[in-house]
Design a protein that fits this description.
Length: 250
């Protein structure tokens, strides 16, 4: 059985106090139990330590990005070792906002994935097409490049530690969600790429999350799809009620 995962990307939101308030609410709500097998939150770097120290042990904490090098003269950057030393256990790699606004390429992201896995941390690797790419019917080609160039240098044990998030860029923060058919079609395609490269057993065990305007109203329909194993949630992850409702949408 694949792991059902719901992860919240808090992006560049919440001060230390605001993050602590959200954590308090989440802690209250997870006490009642959730259906997802794994819950992850991705606070900003400045909030990771306080979130790790105050959040319920059943919720994993991750970083939204990392630098690919171990250490050195990279002013303003944060290494995997630094993130790990906070108690965080997961790192998001290749979110579309990192790709679009910070020029992160598949080649660079492959190095970041390596850095995360070298520290025995969990990598959540994002892929997804823009609207013009979908309209030009180019989305499968784009996703295939993102997956193969970012991940297919890994060996079997490496790929097994990766969670993939499919996030169509046109659905992120727009209120326009991919239909469950559109999500399923791409998730099945991603799984078929993994199967071709690593075989059926590995393909069947990798969790593939959907992201893009996922909310308590549409989560159940999306999560019902055969190859949709959970969600990477942006806006709705900033409201404890919505996030936990999504985590119970199985
Ligand atoms: C995201 O940024 O990963 C995301 C899915 O955002 P939203 O849920 O707000 O569309």
């Amino acid at each position: 059985m694949r792991k059902k995962i719901v992860a919240g990307n808090w992006k560049m939101n919440l001060t230390v106090n605001e993050a602590e308030s959200l954590v308090k609410e989440l802690n209250q709500k997870v006490k009642e139990g959730v259906k997802a097998d794994q819950l992850i939150v991705f606070p900003s770097f400045t909030n990771i330590v306080s979130v790790v120290n105050s959040i319920d042990y059943s919720i994993n904490v991750g970083a939204q990005n990392c630098h690919e090098s171990k250490s050195g003269a990279y002013t303003g950057e944060v290494s995997v070792d630094m993130i790990q030393s906070t108690g965080a256990t997961v790192i998001l790699v290749g979110h579309s906002e990192r790709r679009a606004y910070f020029g992160e390429t598949n080649e660079l992201l492959a190095k970041k994935v390596d850095a995360v896995l070298a520290a025995d941390m969990q990598a959540v690797y994002c892929c997804g097409e823009t609207l013009p790419e979908r309209e030009a019917n180019n989305h499968f080609r784009v996703i295939e490049s993102q997956i193969s160039e970012g991940l297919f240098h890994l060996d079997e044990s490496g790929i097994s530690e990766v969670v993939i998030a499919y996030e169509p860029v046109w659905a992120i923060g727009t209120g326009v969600t991919a239909s469950s058919d559109q999500a399923q079609e791409v998730h099945a395609f991603i799984r078929s790429l993994i199967e071709k490269k690593y075989g059926n057993e590995i393909a069947e065990q990798i969790s593939i999350l959907y992201g893009g305007s996922c909310n308590p109203k549409n989560a159940e329909e999306l999560f019902r799809q055969k190859d949709v194993d959970g969600g990477l949630i942006g806006g709705a992850a900033l409201k404890a009620n919505d996030f936990i409702q999504i985590a119970n949408s199985y």
